[in-house]
Predict the structure.
Amino acid sequence: MIYIKKDMCKGCGLCIEFCPVNILKFSEDLNEKGVYPPEVTDINKCIECENCMIYCPDFAIFLEKGGVKNEK
């Protein structure tokens, strides 16, 4: 499962840039900081490499096995 803490995200896009299977994109909804946090496009393509979690400077995204969940 990919957990995204939308309101912790500063919109840097590192998680999107370093995803080797391109399953992350900027959402169309702004968070409380006024930026577009990432969202998962297809969790079934996730290879659980943890790059999104490793490169996030704000610890706004983390990975566990089993799907996707967006949090505030």
User: Anything to note?
Assistant: Residues 2-71 form a domain with the Alpha-Beta Plaits fold (CATH 3.30.70.20). Residues 51-55 form the longest helix (5 residues).
